[in-house]
Specification:
single chain, rod-shaped, 2 helices, mainly alpha
């Protein structure tokens, strides 16, 4: 049973990590370019 949802869970976790990294990088660099592109 766990093997069925593990790939999807890892995929969502990786996506969340990528989004968080982009947010942190945009905040550190002081540029909201990526955020404006997303929204």
């Amino acid at each position: 049973m766990p093997e069925a949802w593990m790939p999807q869970a890892w995929g969502s976790l990786l996506t969340m990590q990528l989004l968080i990294i982009q947010l942190l990088q945009s905040r550190l660099s002081g540029d909201s370019g990526p955020l404006k592109a997303i929204s």
